[in-house]
Amino acid sequence: MYGDAGQNGQSNTPGEAPHVFWEESRFRLAQPLEGGDHLELRKHQGDGAGFYRIDLIELEAPPPALPQPADSISVTDFGAVPDDGEDDSDAILACLAVAKAQQKSVWIPGGVYHQSQRFIVEGPLVVRGAGMWHTEILGTSLGTDFAGNMGFELGGDGAEVSDLYLDCVAQTRRQGSNGKGFTLSGGASNRVVENVWITHTQTGFWMSTGAHGLIRNCRMRFTYADGININRGTSHTVIEHCHVRGCGDDGIVTLSETERSDPPAVNNTLRNNTVSAIWWGQNLVLGGGSEHLVENNLLPGNALMAVFAINMTGAYPKHPTSDCIVRGNTLVHGGGNFVGQNRGAAWINASSTTVTDIVFEDNNIVSPLFSGIHIRGNSTQKIIFRNNRITDPGGSGSGSSRRRKVGGNSKRTSSRVCRQGRSPSQGCGVNG
Q: Do residues 397 and 373 make contact, with C-beta atoms less than 8 angstroms apart?
């Protein structure tokens, strides 16, 4: 991807400054590897690329394809033909309509299906694929509205989608807001998305004004913007056991905005997720609202910013952040020098609204580039830091970049700061 300095890959016009050499290709071997096999990557004769840089290879033994569920209707009964290169949208939409009327589920067998129209799933409708290595929905048209012409829109009560892979050949740059994997229609509740793999979309999930949802065991790869964003008052949502990598904006974020007069978001849970290699945002963001839980997440690596943030800049008007727990998370190599701020691995920003009654405890911050914990902004803050371990920071263990008012009579920290090779019993300081 390309772009002028500071834009970091928001254009796809060769000749401009190259940025973000990150891409991820999914490939199914014709036969499984056995012990002692030799795997070789070879540049084909006639390939004009100047070079390839391989960062990692992840090998996985995919499970067998799932069988068709009982009491389900197959999209192939309505004319969808996998692997033929033709558009299957009309056939799948017809299957969705009949399944809803007959109160049955929808089955999408293994194979590649082309999509040029968004699929509306109104609960209690359930859509199942044969597995994320077997059933592929390939978006071929961006469309002109916010959500675009690919992916799924979940509505009603009890919509479910699981066990498939979403890709897009039409989304080729970060600009533009269409091309989303999953969105919500107003008031959608009790929706479930699990075992879904999404790549090359503008965002993976953009979930607005919904309640009581679950996103579990999903993978986000190389989305041009956010991986998973729940926003506009979306509450009582659990995001767990997801793996997010290579996103062009925040990896996972709960954002409670005020610009549309939406109520504050409450009681969202972000737990047991891995979010890494983010190149234009934070790995995980707690942005407004109350009673959220951020627990046991692994957050390694960021090109520009913090790996964990409470609130974002004033460009995103938010409800105050309050009564939240952040515990048991591991932050690795976090903190970049975005706009000269030397951000800490954990970046707590009370610039546009207050951050109060937060418990930040039992977190492990490893080798942050600058500060381990970075507090900034002039709005009131009331935060308890307890039993956090900061190992080998590039700068201070914790610090502030601006004056701020601290709520209550005192601000207490009990975060142990250790240089490499020293344990707490060997004289690590306590920042207070």
A: yes
CA dist., res. 166 & res. 246, Å (int)? 16
From CA 34, how far away is CA 165, in angstroms rounded?
26
Q: What is the 3-state secondary structure (H, E, C) of 136-178?
A: EEEECCCCCCCCCCCCEEEEEECCEEEEEEEEECCCCCCCCCC
- Measured between alpha carbons, how far is residue 176 from residues 11, 173, 181, 201, 278 in Å? 11, 8, 14, 11, 19
Q: What is the DSSP string of 269-317?
A: EEES-EEE-BSSS-SEEEESEES-EEES-EEE-BSSS-SEEES--TTS-
Q: What are phi and psi of 29, to 5 degrees?
A: -70, 150
Nearest to 386 by CA among 362, 366, 406: 362
Say if residues 24 and 221 touch (Cβ distance below 8 Å). yes
CB count in 10 Å sphere of residue 200:
21
| Mean pLDDT per 10-residue interval, the chain, length 432 residues | 61 66 82 91 89 85 95 97 97 98 97 97 97 97 87 96 95 78 91 97 93 97 93 95 93 91 94 93 94 98 89 80 97 86 89 92 95 90 95 81 44 46 33 31
Task: Quote the distance between the C-alpha of residue 182 and its chain's center.
Answer: 12
